[in-house]
Amino acid sequence: MTLNRKTALVTGSTSGIGLELARHLARAGTRVVLTGRRKDLLEDILRDFSLKGWEADGIPADLATSGEAERLFRETLSRTGGRLDILVNNAGVWHQSPVEDISRATFRSVMSLNLETPFILSGMAIKLMKRQGGGTIVNISSVAGIEAWAGSALYSASKFGLRALTQSLLAEGAPFGVKSFAICPGYVATPMAADSPIPPEEMIQPEDVARVVMAHLSLSGATVLKDIVISRLGAEQ
Ligand code: NAD
């Protein structure tokens, strides 16, 4: 895909992997819609993008709240002239606790952001992309979406679920030229991994994840990679 003059929506793009990916896309000439919960932060980022001459819009949204994904999608299309070439489901929260301590409320709140919102956004996006005759949906899963450990059940369930969503989207979109792929990184040096005992310089860097996504987006229409695992050097996963 040539990225110049394309349109993209990247969720969770006010920090970490999402912000880095939004920067890469905008630098390549894509008109990016950024979204996050904090309006002031979004405005600062948009000002910085504008100074660089990059095309971008910002729509604040709390994607753990019912109805916000639908509103975000509608508002995105109103900014992009009704077209969407790339959707990146990146917003997510980490959760760690044994299964016995997970309440229904906690389950719903993690699943709502990490899995329900990507489902809803992807459903609306694939419908549009099929009509357009092309597009790509990128889901930011995790190595915890391939394997689960003590304490990771809820987060892992959401990230396993994202891979299931990706596989079905790929099968449903392929006849229409719509691609879907999932990226499964280990520890990435972002605010989410700030409490990890691993020093940030030994983690995967957010720009590495962005580079992998950009490489995939540049592949020819007939090629797709499946379950891309990005590991730290020397790490088991
Ligand atoms: P991050 O905390 O920097 O970014 C998370 C993003 O999600 C932020 O932009 C935040 O504003 C947004 N977000 C959180 N709650 C939200 C809500 N209710 N509504 C809207 N947006 C909300 O962390 P990150 O590492 O950049 O995370 C990005 C994605 O990468 C997540 O899905 C995460 O699960 C995944 N991931 C991270 C790592 C890691 O080690 N950092 C590893 C594998 C996968």
Write structural notes for this entry.
With 237 residues, this protein is an alpha/beta fold. It has one domain (7-230): NAD(P)-binding Rossmann-like Domain (Rossmann fold, 3-Layer(aba) Sandwich), CATH 3.40.50.720. Helices cover 42% and strands 14% of the residues. It is built from six helices and seven strands; from the N terminus they run βαβαβαβαβαβαβ. It has helices spanning 16-27, 39-51, 68-80, 104-132, 153-173, 206-217; strands at residues 7-10, 31-34, 56-58, 86-89, 135-140, 178-185, 228-230. It has a seven-stranded parallel sheet with strand order 3-2-1-4-5-6-7, with helices on both faces. It is globular. It starts with 6 loop residues before the first strand and ends in a 7-residue tail after the last strand. The mean pLDDT is 96. The structure holds nicotinamide-adenine-dinucleotide (NAD). Residues 12, 14-18, 36-37, 62-64, 90-93, 113, 140, 142, 185, 187-188, 190-193 line the site of nicotinamide-adenine-dinucleotide.
User: Would you count the extended β strands for me?
Assistant: 7
What portion of residues is helical?
A: 40-55%
The distinct bound ligands, ions and cofactors come out as: nicotinamide-adenine-dinucleotide
- The oligomeric state is single chain
Briefly note the structural class of the backbone: alpha/beta
How many structural domains are formed by the residues?
Answer: 1
In the predicted model, the low-confidence regions spanning at least 5 consecutive residues are none
Q: Main sheet, how many strands, which sense, barrel?
A: 7 strands, parallel
Radius of gyration computed on alpha carbons? 17 Å
In spatial order, strands of the major sheet run 3-2-1-4-5-6-7
How many helical stretches? Answer: 6
Shape: globular
**How much beta, percentage-wise?**
5-15%
CATH topology group = Rossmann fold
Provide mean pLDDT, rounded. 96
Distance between the termini: 30 Å
